[in-house]
C-alpha cells in the first residue's frame, strides 16, 4: 500500500515481476527441501544422523541457489531478450544476489526449527524480515523519497539477512556445526521431495502466470502492475486456504492411518465448506465494490484493474476445492497423482491464457484464469471423488449448516445482551 503510492505504474510492473521470480524460486526450493528435511530429522534418533540429514539438505539448498545465481550472471542476454523493460529487472536480480545467499541459510534454519517442532524462531525470523523492509519503505514514504530498483533489491537482502540472524539465534541449540553430507541422504531427500517440488513449482508458476505472460505478450509494465494489484488483493482471500492446508495435511494423514478413507472424505468436505463460508461473503463484496477496494489498497489510478479483480474473485470461490484436493492426494500417499493433475491444469492454463491474451489483450490473462479455474475444478473433483468418494452435494449441506450455526449463536448473544441491559 505504501510502495504502490511511491512508484509509477511501469515501476510497479517491474517490481511485480521481480517479486514473482524470486517468490517462485524461494517457495519452489522450499517445497523440495523442507518436507523431506522435517520428515527425516523428526524421525531420526541419533544426533549424528540428524547432522548428516541437515548437511545434505543444506548442500542441495546451496547448489540450487548457486545455479540460479549463475543464470543471472552468465545468461543475462537471454533475460534481456525477454521484453523491453528486462534491463531494470536484471539490475534488480543482480543486486539481490546477496539476498539469494541469505535465503539459503534462512530456509535451512527454518526447516531445522520445524523439524524439532519449534516454531518460535520461524515466527521471529519472518517477523523481523518483513518489519525491516516495511520500516525502510515507510521511511521513504514519509520523506517522499522514491527508491530505485537497486535500492529495493538491497533492502530485500538486508531484511533477509536480519531475519536469518534472528532465526539462527533461535536455532543454535539444534545445530551441530558440522558439514557432513552423504550421497545416500542427498539422493533420499531429492527422491522424497521430487513430486512435491514439481507440484510446488507448477503451483507457484501458475499463481504468477498472468503477470509473466502479460509481460511477455503485451510487453507493458503498466499492464503487469494492474495484475499485481489484483493478485495482491486476491492473496488476502487465499490466506485462510493456505492456513488450512498447513493444519489439514497432518490431520488427514492421521485420519487415513486410524479410520480410513471415509474420515478423509469427511474432513475434506467439512474443511472446504468452512473455507467457502469464510470466502464467499468477502468475495461477493469485492465483486460488487471492486473500485472501492482498489482505491483503498492502491489508489484511483489503478481502477482499470477492477475487472481483473472481479474475475479473480469469482475464481477464488472455487479455489479451495482444488487446493484441498491436492492435500488429500498427498496425505493418502499419492503425490505423483497430484503432480500429474497439476501438470495437466498448468498445460491447460498456458494454452487458454495464450489464446485469451492474443484475443482480449489486457484482460485476457484474467479471463484465462477464470476459464482454467472452472476446467480444473471439475478435473480435481472427478479425481478426488474417485480416490476417496467425495460428494459435491455434501459441501452445500455443511456450508449452510455453518451459516445456521453462526446465525443461531449471534441471536443468542443478542438476546443475552438485551436481558443484561434490561
Query: What percentage of residues falls in helices of 4 or more residues?
Result: over 70%
Q: In percent, how much strand structure appears in the residues?
A: under 5%
Please count the helical segments: 16
What integer is the average pLDDT? Answer: 82
Order of helices and strands: HHHHHHHHHHHHHHHH
* Unreliable sequence segments: none
The end-to-end span amounts to 45 Å
Gross geometry = globular
Largest sheet: none
Which structural category do the helix and sheet elements fall into? mainly alpha
The number of E-state strands comes to 0
Quickly count the domains.
Answer: 2
Return Rg in Å. 23 Å
Description:
It is a single chain. This protein has 422 residues and is mainly alpha-helical. The chain has two domains: 1-219, no CATH class; 221-422, no CATH class. 86% of the residues lie in helices and 0% in strands. The protein has 16 helices and no strands. Helix 2 (9-42) packs parallel to helix 10 (221-259) and helix 10 packs antiparallel against helix 11. The longest helix is centred in the middle third of the chain and has 39 residues, at 221-259. The chain is globular. The mean pLDDT is 82.
List the helices and strands and how they pair.
Elements: H1 3-6, H2 9-42, H3 47-74, H4 76-80, H5 86-95, H6 97-115, H7 120-142, H8 149-171, H9 183-217, H10 221-259, H11 261-288, H12 290-297, H13 306-331, H14 335-360, H15 364-388, H16 394-421
Amino acid at each position: 500500500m505504501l510502495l504502490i503510492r511511491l512508484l509509477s505504474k511501469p515501476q510497479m510492473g517491474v517490481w511485480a515481476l521481480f517479486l514473482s521470480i524470486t517468490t517462485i524460486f524461494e517457495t519452489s526450493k522450499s517445497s523440495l527441501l523442507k518436507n523431506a528435511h522435517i520428515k527425516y530429522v523428526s524421525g531420526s534418533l541419533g544426533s549424528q544422523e540428524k547432522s548428516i540429514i541437515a548437511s545434505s539438505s543444506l548442500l542441495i539448498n546451496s547448489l540450487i541457489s548457486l545455479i540460479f545465481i549463475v543464470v543471472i550472471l552468465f545468461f543475462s542476454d537471454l533475460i534481456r531478450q525477454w521484453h523491453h523493460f528486462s534491463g531494470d529487472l536484471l539490475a534488480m536480480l543482480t543486486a539481490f544476489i546477496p539476498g539469494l545467499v541469505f535465503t539459503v541459510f534462512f530456509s535451512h534454519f527454518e526447516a531445522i526449527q520445524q523439524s524439532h517442532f519449534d516454531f518460535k524462531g520461524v515466527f521471529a525470523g519472518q517477523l523481523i524480515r518483513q518489519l525491516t523492509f516495511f520500516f525502510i519503505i515507510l521511511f521513504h514514504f514519509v520523506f517522499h523519497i522514491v527508491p530505485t530498483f537497486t535500492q529495493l533489491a538491497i533492502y530485500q537482502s538486508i531484511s533477509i539477512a536480519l531475519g536469518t540472524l534472528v532465526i539462527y539465534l533461535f536455532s543454535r541449540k539444534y545445530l551441530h556445526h558440522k558439514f557432513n553430507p552423504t550421497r545416500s541422504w542427498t539422493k533420499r531427500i531429492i527422491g522424497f521431495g521430487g513430486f512435491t517440488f514439481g507440484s510446488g513449482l507448477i503451483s507457484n508458476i501458475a499463481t504468477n502466470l498472468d503477470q509473466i505472460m502479460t509481460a511477455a505478450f503485451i510487453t507493458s509494465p503498466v499492464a503487469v502492475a494492474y495484475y499485481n494489484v489484483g493478485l495482491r488483493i486476491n492473496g488476502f482471500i487465499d490466506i485462510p486456504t493456505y492456513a488450512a492446508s498447513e493444519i489439514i495435511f497432518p490431520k488427514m494423514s492421521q485420519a487415513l492411518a486410524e479410520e480410513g478413507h471415509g474420515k478423509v472424505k469427511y474432513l475434506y468436505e467439512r474443511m472446504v465448506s468452512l473455507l467457502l463460508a469464510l470466502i464467499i461473503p468477502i468475495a461477493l463484496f469485492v465483486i460488487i465494490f471492486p473500485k472501492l477496494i482498489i482505491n483503498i489498497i492502491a489508489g484511483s489510478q489503478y481502477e482499470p484493474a477492477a475487472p481483473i479483480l472481479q474475475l479473480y474473485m469469482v475464481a477464488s470461490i472455487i479455489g479451495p476445492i482444488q487446493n484441498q484436493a491436492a492435500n488429500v492426494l498427498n496425505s493418502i500417499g499419492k503425490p505423483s497423482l497430484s503432480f500429474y493433475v497439476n501438470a495437466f491444469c498448468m498445460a491447460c492454463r498456458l494454452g487458454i491464457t495464450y489464446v485469451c491474451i492474443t484475443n482480449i489483450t489486457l484482460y485476457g490473462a484474467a479471463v484465462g484464469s477464470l476459464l482454467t479455474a472452472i476446467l480444473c475444478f471439475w478435473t480435481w473433483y472427478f479425481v478426488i471423488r474417485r480416490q476417496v468418494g467425495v460428494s459435491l452435494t455434501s459441501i452445500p449441506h455443511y456450508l449452510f449448516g455453518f451459516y445456521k450455526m453462526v446465525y443461531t449463536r449471534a441471536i443468542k448473544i443478542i438476546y443475552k445482551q438485551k436481558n443484561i441491559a434490561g
